[in-house]
Amino acid sequence: MGLFGEEYQADPHPALAELRRDGPVHRVVTPGGVAFWMVTRWAEARHVLADPALSKRQPVDGLPPELQAAMATQMLLRDPPDHTRLRRLVTAAFTARRIEALRPRVEEITDRLLDGLESPGDLIEALAFPLPFEVICELLGVPGDERGAFRGWSNTIILGQFGTAEFTEAIGDLVGYLRGLFDRKRARPTDDLLGALVSAEGDRLSSDELVSMTILLLIAGHETTVNLIGNAVYLLCRHPDQKKRLLDDPGLVPAAIEETLRLASPSATTTYRVTTQPLTLGEVTIPVGEQVLVSLLAVNRDAQRFTAPDVFDVDRADGGHLAFGHGIHFCLGAPLARLEAQIALGRLLSRHPDIHLTVPWQDLRWRSGLLMHGLTALPITVAAS
Ligand code: HEM
């Protein structure tokens, strides 16, 4: 059973279960000939994600030189001490207060998007995709009338193919736009995340790092959250008994989001690292200089860690999923992603308790590739409200 065929795209879990049963780590070669190691068990994954002997540095090839630095200086691709400095700066700006202050706006945006939900319709297009984009614009402080162009570049970057002319042009346009936006925020300080980061610029944050950080927040915060919202609605439609639990007790919505993160981890394998020392996992020793990816999708269903791991259970008591990573690179945006997903699911169910899929769940189409786990479309119907 392979990781690269249509069968895997339709349902990755049988192949991942087979690998997990065989051992904690496996050598994988892509159809394009790229070799890496994939970790499939929870205990080893926790170790790998936090082991300082694994580096996050990754070359960003295939972009014109003037755009390289704007992509490569992001903290997700850095090790300490650079990572520590960048993470500290953005953490100071990405405060719990700033996230919580977004709550009414997230509710407003969700309600507006739900007002436009058609039946039958596509929940990804109507809600899951636009919501995180609008929210990230609010957080960063992208002015309302500039969001159309911003959305165009952002979509090309997220949905497009790295290295194509269209992709490179979108990055170039986005970088140009951001540099202009920062100039304006320098001239007239604003009380938003980019305003706070601009004021940290100078000795502590270079201008390329500022651009790179913003692009990281935009990209890391968008598609993953789209997948989380889509996967949560998919799982509830597929398991009517669990949906009924939530309708009877809406206080379980946060638990349903955690269970979705575990069972259908949106960021399936986006955990690149490279060995700087030989790494022994089980009976395998990985040499220096090899790429290692943790399959979060696989490790979050490890029976050594979770009881009845393949069951979707909103009353589950065993936490500890690794869907947001672990260690110093633990997802910075986890509180924001949780806030958005909880509001989206809570509002959707209270307005449309009768929501259901218009096609059998087996016919739904998933995004291709190993990195992300999310639906391309989620066809649903709801009764008129
Ligand atoms: C890092 C998942 C939403 C910003 C990560 C990592 C994971 C992850 C697994 C660690 C990668 C690694 O260790 O190699 C997710 C999921 C999300 C989500 C599943 C939604 C459901 C967001 C949002 C934002 C965000 C909304 C920001 C607005 C970041 C950043 C990092 C990161 C900046 C890098 C942290 C560092 O290097 O220190 N995310 N993420 N993420 N995430 Fe998220």
Fold and architecture overview:
The protein is 51% helix and 8% strand. With 385 residues, the protein is an alpha+beta fold. It has a 5-stranded mixed beta sheet. The chain has a 3-stranded antiparallel beta sheet with strand order 4-10-9. Strands 6-7 form a two-stranded antiparallel ribbon. Helix 7 runs antiparallel to helix 9 (130-140) and helix 13 crosses helix 15. Protoporphyrin IX containing FE (HEM) is lined by residues 49, 75-76, 87, 136, 216-217, 220-221, 224-225, 228, 266-267, 270-271, 323-325, 329, 331-333, 336-337.
Concise structural overview:
51% of the residues lie in helices and 8% in strands. It has 385 residues and is of the alpha+beta class. The protein is globular and about 55 Å long.
Shape: globular
Q: What's the end-to-end separation, in Å?
A: 45 Å
Which small compounds were modeled alongside the protein?
protoporphyrin IX containing FE
Strand order of the largest sheet: 1-2-8-5-3
Structural class designation: alpha+beta
Please provide the ordered H/E string of secondary-structure elements: HHEEHEHHHHEHHHHHHHHEEEEHHEE
